[in-house]
Amino acid sequence: MLAGLVENELSLRLHGEDAQVMSAPVMNLPLEIAGRRFQSRLMAGTGKFASNALMRDTLASCGSEIVTVALRRADLSGGDDPQADILKFIDPDKYLILPNTSGAMDADEAVRLARLAEAAGLPKWVKLEIHPDPTYLLPDPIETLKAAEILVREGFTVLPYINADPVLAKRLQEVGTAAVMPLGAPIGSNKGVVTRDQIRIIIDQAIVPVVVDAGLGAPSHAAEAMELGADAVLINTAMAIPSDPVRMGEAFKLAVEAGRAAYEIGLPEADDHASATSPLTGFLE
Q1: Candidate list 127, 170, 191, 253, residue with the active-site label
Q2: 124, 142, 157, 180 — which has fewest CB within 10 A?
Q3: What domains lie within the chain, and their CATH numbers?
Q4: CA–CA distance, 86 with 56 (Å, rounded to integer)
């Protein structure tokens, strides 16, 4: 008898006027950087894939519209071998190609790489990345700020990769960068949002988009970063090295959308005490 009453009550709740259509797509607000709008908040890197063709297919599955390419890996000479040139596998009409100065040891080298990319016809956007330390690959804050000042003056749209340093993030915004990209954890470490407290401060003070970049190793890490209020995330290793990068790209796409939707809706605050989710009285009256 009781089981039947409970079943009827649940049926009314599930199929009554308050029922929600669960199949409706998530419609998050677009990401805007330097006046340009993007529907996807997932940026994708292009390193570590087993092949350029697999990289191309993963970019399609993850839905990214901004794709970073390390300039040291790109053939800017206009050669004829498509297999040797990663740029041949990235459709510039579909993706914003974001040249990356990864591998630059100082500001001078980073600026030189950015200028080379512009001369080769790539967009005048740059992911500014300077990490002279070969062990931990942590970004150099002094050289990054120096290079950002130069590149902004030259008209580049600059997205600097930095430690999760709120003071540096603020300084970079003051010199005119279009975004800041604090790391969640060291590059390729897959540890997740280890720097969450500093990232919260950066987001709180930000006047430009905040992109959590590096160290995110699982879709749940990406969702967490978005729930914190990050405007976007950048994923590379975690999509490139699994046994099925294409499916993992789909997983990250869904995680970013879900995390952003949760942030836009507003998450409930944590509480030290329990709170019943079902009425304890009047249910069977």
Answers
A1: 127
A2: 142
A3: 26-265 (3.20.20.70)
A4: 9
Structure tokens at 284: 């069977």
Q: pLDDT of the chain along its 285 residues, tens only?
A: 444 444 444 444 445 444 444 445 566 789 999 999 999 999 999 999 999 999 999 999 999 999 999 877 665 555 554 445 788 899 999 999 999 999 899 999 999 999 999 998 999 999 999 998 888 889 999 999 999 999 999 999 999 999 999 999 999 999 999 999 999 999 888 999 999 999 999 999 999 999 999 999 999 999 999 999 999 999 999 999 999 999 999 999 999 999 999 999 998 887 777 777 776 665 555
Residues 176, 164: Cα–Cα separation, whole Å: 18
The residues, ordered by sequence, that sit 6+ positions from 183 with a Cβ below 8 Å of its Cβ are 138, 139, 161, 162, 163, 164, 195, 212, 213, 214, 215
What three-state secondary structure class fits 193?
coil
- 127 annotated active-site: yes
